[in-house]
Write a structure and sequence with these properties.
mainly alpha; elongated
Amino acid sequence: MIGRQALHFLLVIMASEEINEDYPVEIHEYLSTFENSIGAVDEMLKTMMSVSRNELLQKLDPLEQAKVDLVSAYTLNSMFWVYLATQGVNPKEHPVKQELERIRVYMNRVKEITDKKKAGKLDRGAASRFVKNALWEPKPKNASKVANKGKCKN
């Protein structure tokens, strides 16, 4: 990535002692973190691009395919958001904001479906038996008199 090389060059220049006095140390830390993040994104993209999309999707069930598509769309739109910001365009006023929100809605729907699959199912028969056996039932009046007659005899 050309941007990563340019950022690395900037970090090398900023690391020199002559310029070090001209900027706060926090900027260097943020730029270092940003460089690492760009490196991670670059590696992720290389991994994703090494396998054809059709080959990848054939190995996944429909829900996993939807997740891959949504994450890809969200990532591309997020990168475009960053690009707009670097060009001086306010991304909050650009249609990309609505697109990101639309993708988030679908991501939440997929999450709900996944959560429903993970949720335990209720066995109504077992629950009914459990509740029935757990409830207190008063003893019949005759049963207590019979029990007392046997105890009273000496």
